[in-house]
Every structure is written in C-alpha cells, then in structure tokens.
Amino acid sequence: MLRRKIERTLLEWKQNANKMPLIIKGCRQCGKTFSVLDFARKHYGNVVYLDFFQHPEYKSVFDGAIDIDNICLLLSTLIPDAHFIAGDTCLILDEIQECPRARTALKFFKTDSRYDVICTGSLLGVSGYANNGGAPIPVGYEQIIDMYPMDFEEWLWANGIAEPQTDYLRLCLKQNTPVQEAVHERMHQLLLQYCIVGGMPMAVKVFKESNNLQSVLHTQKAIVDGYKADMIKYAPQTDKSRIRECFESIPRQLSKENKRFAYSDVRKGGRGRDYQGSLQWIENAGIIRRCYNLSIPELPLDGNAIHEQFKVYMADTGLFVSMLEPGTAADILRGNLFGYKGAIFENLVADIFGKMGRKLYYFRKDTGLEIDFVIRYQGESTLVEVKAANGNVKSTRTILSHPEKYHVTKAVKLGNVNIGASAGMSTIPLYLAFLLTGY
Questions:
Q1: What distance in Å separates the CA atoms of residue 113 and residue 229, rounded to the nearest whole number?
Q2: Residues near 283 by Cβ (< 8 Å), separated by ≥ 6?
Q3: Cα–Cα distances in Å, from 50 out to 13, 111, 146?
Q4: What DSSP state is assigned to residue 235?
Q5: Model confidence over 51-82: pLDDT tens digits?
Q6: Chain-centroid distance, C-alpha 398
Q7: How far apart are CA 175 and CA 281, in angstroms?
Q8: Are 95 and 52 within 8 A, CB to CB?
Q9: 90 closest CA partner among 25, 145, 41, 17
Q10: DSSP state, 272?
C-alpha cells in the first residue's frame, strides 16, 4: 500500500473536537477516494460510503428537507449495511460536486455533530462552485484541503527511502556537505524515475509491480484521456474545443526558448479573450499550474507578480512526459535530451514545488535575463536555476552582482551536482528540491 501524507492530515482533523465536515479537493485519480476510505476503515467502527458518480440514485436522498435523521433513515434503506452510531461513524460523500444539495447538507451535519463527514471532489473548481444548481454552499461549515498526486518524498517512501535516509539528506543540506556518493547516485536515479512515472498512484503502483515503463505509459495515457473526456462532459458547450486546444498546446509551449504561455500558440491568431476561460478551466480542474513573471525578484513575490505574463506547467511530471513523443522516457534515463531538456526538468521542479504548496514565480526581462524560478527561502527572495546537468547560470550571476538594483543576494542551482557553494550561490542536487522549505 502506498503511504500518503494526507493520512496525517486526516488524523489531525479527526482529533479536533470542533472539526467541520471535510472536503478533499484534487484532480482526478490522485488517490483521494482510496486514502479517505483507508483512513475511515482504520479509525471508525462504521463507514457509510456514497459515490454520487457511480450511483446517481443516492442524490435523491438530499432532494427533500435536509434533516439529518431523515437522511440517515433513507441511506439505511438504500444501503442495508449502513449503520449510524453517534461518535463512531464516518460518512464519505465521494464526488460531491455531482450532488450540490449534499454539499448544502454539510451545514446541518456540522450543527448536528453526531457523525463525521468527509467529502471528495475532483472538479469542484469547475463544477462544484460555478454550477451548483442553486444549492447554497455552506460557507463557514466546511473545511477544504487540497490533495495532489504523490509528491517526491512520497515516491521515496514507495521505494524504501524512509525518514532516517531523508534526515541524513536534510543534515547534508543544512551543513552544506556533499551527499555520500553511493547515496547520491541512488537518489539521482530515483529522481529520473519519478520524472517519468510521476505521482499518480495508479502509475506508481504499475511501475512498482511491473518495473515496465511501457505499462506505466499506457496507464498515464488512460488518465490523460480521462481528463480529455472530462473536458467534453463538464465544460460549457462553447468552450469544449478551446479547452482541449489549450491543454494539448502545453508541450509545445514549454519547448520554446521563451516559455511564456502565448494564446497565439494555441491556435494561429488565437487571442487571450478567446482562451482565457479555457485555460482557467484546466487550472481549476487541478491539471496545470501557472508560474507568474515578476516585475522585480524581491519580496513580496505575489505583490510583484505580473499576472498577464505566465508559464504553464503540468501539475504532474509523469503526465507531462507521457504527452511528449514516444521514446522520451528512455531518453531521460540515458540523458539523451535536446530540445525538451529544459522543459522536462523545469516541469519536474514545478511539480516538486507545487506539491509543497509553493506558488510559482519566475523572472524574465526582454534584455535576456531569465531565472527559472524565484522562491521565498529562509526568509529571503532566492533565485533558482534548473539545469539537467551542470550548465552555466549567467543571468543569476548578473543579478547577484547588482544587489542594489535587484535586492537579491541568494541563489540556488539545481542540477546533476552534489552539494556545494560558490560566489554566493548554492549548488544542490535536483533530488533535494523537496527539502527547500523554510519560507
């Protein structure tokens, strides 16, 4: 079984005496349902599970007056093994965006407080909020948590790298000492595999069971096809083709030297007013992340973001690689990357940072200065350059040499390197990006 960080979050929620009904929000197939069911079965004597997608007939339970005793009675009739015991029952409402009235009922479950309620939603950003059928959202009576596909640390757990090993890596980073060579090589190989497999639990499971990248690719393509099917099913009729065009343009958008997202590259002559809503739909579905350009790379980063200028990355690196041409996975493992090299490793770091909960920013000027990412690290604005191997960092050195102009004195180069430092810049292996915490 794959270990997930959401387990700790769910346990903290359960132990809160004043907890509200919980909504776990995330893209399709990131592991929400499995994690919630596994947790509930471990910690409750009674689990009542409703999947509104597979069983739309359950929606009728919430059609009338929202009375908790009546709801429980109806559910007990529809689900013979459903038992409601105060203080020891967890009601799971899966794909709650399919039943807006069930979401309205969360207010009454909170007020009643006899039963714990956990909901999952895959498309709340595009369906649950914008198209709720007139049913009010219970503001102040629900807690929403974002869940992502498996992050790099969870991938390490799946591959037998536990806390003692990550504690060692954390100590090396803190003391600025190189990682022992055998560990360094193993971690680099695991990073390349994560770049290809990504964090979709089914893809990880297939890889662990088969060690076959072709089987992984088939799984990933099925997930991507599922996303495209959602675009047809849930998107407004007028936007369906535009959403798909935006989505399918991402690989070629990232292959450009200037990776700033351009609506004209979605379709020749395309304009922002035609595609802004389409791109927003994909982002709201949790499939992509935006990375905003900064007017100046100083804190506060969000205050200096230029929201009309952004790059777009896939939220999961494995799905991104699966959208590239056949043979890319083998090229990554062999190091035979050319045009897509920058795009792949930038998307990898965007994946790692995004799953840490970081907002993404970069810095680019028409003069040619360009920094892949800018983060708040240890209380300071920090430049982050991403290199597949150990490339030059001319833009970073230019900025560091003018602190009076750019107000930046710290930089990190992530690449196929060991831990070190030179001229105010830390060199850090790509596989340690997940430890760049300490906002």
A1: 38
A2: 125, 289, 290
A3: 21, 21, 20
A4: S
A5: 999 999 999 999 988 899 999 999 999 998 99
A6: 32
A7: 44
A8: yes
A9: 41
A10: H
